From TrEMBL:
Protein name: Large ribosomal subunit protein bL20
Stretch list, region Disordered: 1-37
Function: Binds directly to 23S ribosomal RNA and is necessary for the in vitro assembly process of the 50S ribosomal subunit. It is not involved in the protein synthesizing functions of that subunit.
Family membership noted in the UniProt record: Belongs to the bacterial ribosomal protein bL20 family.
GO BP terms: ribosomal large subunit assembly; translation
Keywords: Ribonucleoprotein, Ribosomal protein, RNA-binding, rRNA-binding
Domain of life: Bacteria
Compositionally biased residues, Basic residues: 1-18
Length: 119
């Protein structure tokens, strides 16, 4: 009977896990048990932070909009209320971008908001 050498699949699996652990320090990049643990935690943190990034970006847009709108004499909450009244359907991301890159266009949006608010 022919001899069957085992371990090829396990070896590939271990190599794949160790490859994912590159960049960690100490045993977290060498010892398979520690590498697995580190990879599990890294995956958890990555998932959590992908969601947190969305919140942080929205906060950034709100801060930028508030600053730009206040320069025009309209606080953020009034800006948003005025946009709804004026039926302007531009999201915060685009508005923040317009405020930075196209100040003249943002000023015209603010003037429409002021008209809708009755100022």
């Amino acid at each position: 009977m022919t001899r069957i050498k085992r371990g090829v699949t396990a070896h590939h699996r271990h190599k794949r896990e160790l490859k994912r652990g590159e960049g960690h320090r100490g045993t977290r990049s060498k010892n398979l048990k520690r590498v697995r643990e580190a990879n599990l935690h890294a995956g958890d943190y990555a998932r959590r932070d992908r969601r947190a990034r969305k919140r942080q970006m929205r906060q950034l847009w709100v801060v930028r909009l508030n600053a730009a709108a206040r320069l025009q004499g309209v606080p953020y909450r009034e800006l948003i209320a005025g946009l709804k009244k004026a039926n302007i359907l531009i999201d915060r991301k685009m508005l923040a971008d317009i405020a930075i890159r196209e100040p003249a266009a943002f000023t015209s949006v603010i003037s429409q908001v002021k008209v809708a608010l009755g100022r």
